[in-house]
Amino acid sequence: MPETSPTERALRLLELLQTRRSWPGRELADRLGTDGRTLRRDVDRLRRLGYRIEGRRGTDGGYRLSTGDDLPPLVLTPDEALATAAALASSAASGSAGGGELALTALAKIEQVMPRGARPRVRALRSSVAPSQSTRAAPGAYPAPLDAGVLGVLALACRDTERVRLRHMATGGPDAGQDLLARVEPVALVPRGTRWYLVCRDVDRGWRALRVDRITRAEPTGVRFDPRPVPGGDATAFLSGLLGAPPRTHEATILVHAPIDQVQAYMGGFAADFTAVTLPSGEAATHWRIADVRLEVLAGGLLWLRWPFEVLDSPELAALLRERAAAFAAAGAEQRGE
User: Fold this and answer.
1) Hey, what domains does the chain have and what are their CATH numbers?
2) Which pLDDT tens digits describe the chain residue by residue (338 residues)?
3) Which among 104, 136, 230, 252 could bridge 314 via Cys, Cβ 3.0 to 4.6 Å?
4) pTM: predicted TM-score of the whole model, two decimal places
């Protein structure tokens, strides 16, 4: 293996640590083409830069990257950066108070440091995303997987009004499940919930909205087209006309009577959006912000809480909890033979 500089080795080490929860020391050294002593020096170099790297001694020893109080630099591949840009563009398109502006500034920072060859894809993505009526996903709902290369081609085609040749998996109708070819004139990428849609005019079938996660290949043709008015007025209205209005999202703030470090340690594996608060009594507590299109899902999530809690701002959720509490109490009484 060619000899690498300490800086190159440290960056490669950081990239490896970010791809897996923990690494055996010997395997890390082999991946880097170095020995255990050099590996320890490289780990110490990253620690001095602010990364919290935990180490275990012994024959089964190894290293893991842990969370800290500050945010050291991240190492992203171009595809990872584009995927991050897609999420930020979706947040910006939602127009949420504060969040949209923060997403735009973060997106601009990613664009600034992207490799020169990949930067146009991020710029095109930012300019081709149409505002969505509802882009907030439910907690625990994971985004549909996207091919970064496909997303980049579609973003550039929307920006440059260039016809694209697609291969996509049909999701409905007589062609459901089949891999189809299409020639389309892309107009906009519209985020909705955990999915992205391409609003386009199919040269053979007219106006359509295609799920981007079902597009397996996208090839630019070099053929430019003259933009045409989108039915319904714009891409977002057209998508809503096809799929219906986005379902209402129920939101609630839960006051958990426990310090935030305890709540995060217990629930961090499946929940987020915690904020530390101090009550007038001086008690350390936690605000937990939750949202979903179904109140029952919010109520189910509260079953995980092991501390007393209060629903602060959702009368509907509080009413549902009161209603179901009687059923839970009755079920418990039957088991005790009461």
Assistant:
1) 6-66 (1.10.10.10), 78-243 (no CATH), 250-336 (3.30.70)
2) 455 677 778 778 877 887 776 788 888 888 888 888 898 888 888 888 777 888 877 666 688 877 654 555 666 666 667 767 776 666 655 544 344 445 655 665 666 666 666 677 777 776 677 765 554 544 444 445 667 778 888 888 888 899 999 999 877 666 666 788 999 999 998 887 778 899 999 999 999 999 988 998 999 999 999 999 999 888 888 988 888 766 667 889 999 999 998 988 888 666 778 899 999 999 999 999 988 878 888 888 898 899 999 999 999 999 999 988 888 888 777 665 55
3) 252
4) 0.49
AA identity, residue 162: E
